[in-house]
Amino acid sequence: MARPRKFDEQQVLHSATETFWTSGFAATSLDDLMRATGLGKGSLYGAFGDKQALFQRVLDGHCANVTAGLRKRLSGPDSSAATRLRALFDVAVAAGAPPGPQRACLLAKSTAELAATNAEVAVRAQQTFTTFAGLLRAEVENAQAAGDIPGDRDPQRMAHHLLTVLRGMEALAEAGMDESVLRDAADTALASVGLNQT
Fold it and tell me: What is the mean predicted confidence (pLDDT) over 175-180?
């Protein structure tokens, strides 16, 4: 009979997430993970598998969380869809405002580091970005239904454009670009789909 675990799995995953997020996959050693989680090698491997398996759990959890956050942010009545889209871009602009840029999204960081050589990471990134695009498309369609975005615009193409700008703004914010650059990008993206800032 297996002995019950004597650690909080969610806390261990949180500590591992912070470690991978700070250092990246390649630069994070098993010793780093042991120090961060307080677990020995046997406990880590027994509970989560090897470093790659633990990282995949971390990335999957992060992707689920950010997807749930975006879904919640974009939920509500059609009459408020335009406001929600504007607010989404306002948050992206605020990421570059003082006291300074925020660290890159773990998904973006992991995709840049690993997607070209790790099929599991590439698939997870593609799935997550496809979901993001679907949520944006639904919101564009909601805004079209409310008369806030012209109905003759292709919602799929607009969603892809908005997603690309949002992810680009995140990279610019991490690089410390001036907030005015991000505001210009946000305003231009919204105007391009027929939404002007109010």
Answer: 90
pTM listed for this prediction: 0.90
- 128 and 187 in a common domain: yes
Q: Which residues of 1-23 are buried (b: 16+ CB within 10 A; e: fewer)?
A: eeeeeeeeeeebbebbbebbbee
Residue carrying the six token digits 């700008």: 165
Model pLDDT, residue 2: 47
DSSP string for residues in 97-114: STT-PPPPPHHHHHHHHH
Q: Which domain holds residue 102?
A: 58-192
Residues 89 and 161 in one domain: yes
Residue type, position 48, single letter = F
Cβ neighbors of 179 (< 8 A, separation 6 or more) are: 93, 96, 97
**Is a pLDDT exceeding 50 seen at residue 13?**
yes
Percent of the chain's residues with pLDDT above 70: 93
Q: How many structural domains comprise the chain? A: 2
Q: Are residues 71 and 34 in the same domain?
A: no
Alpha helices for the chain (secondary structure H): 9-23, 30-37, 41-48, 51-73, 81-94, 106-114, 119-145, 155-174, 179-192
**How far apart are the C-alpha atoms of 71 and 47, rounded to whole Å?**
31
